[in-house]
Amino acid sequence: MTTNQTRTTRVSARVDPETHERITRAAEFSGRSMNQFLVDAATKMAKEVVEEATTIRLTNEEADRMMEVLNNPHPANTRLREAARRHADRKHRHKPQKSR
Length: 100
Fold this sequence. Notes:
mainly alpha, 0% strand
């Protein structure tokens, strides 16, 4: 018989007595253990922070302008063409060999 065990890692924090009391009361009011309350709160905040850091928000006008630029790009200038050539050269040089 196999058991499905989830690995966990301990997280701890030191807080002043006032903060500890506030968290304890909030956990009691929510009907959760302090540990579960802290995990839920930290998880919610982590999701919000990651979403904010990885999401680009545009107004309708900005989105329209972005689409216009993507659909009608300026022609590549000399510096861009040279950068693309250098990238292709490096990519070709570092291409992994297939084993036989």
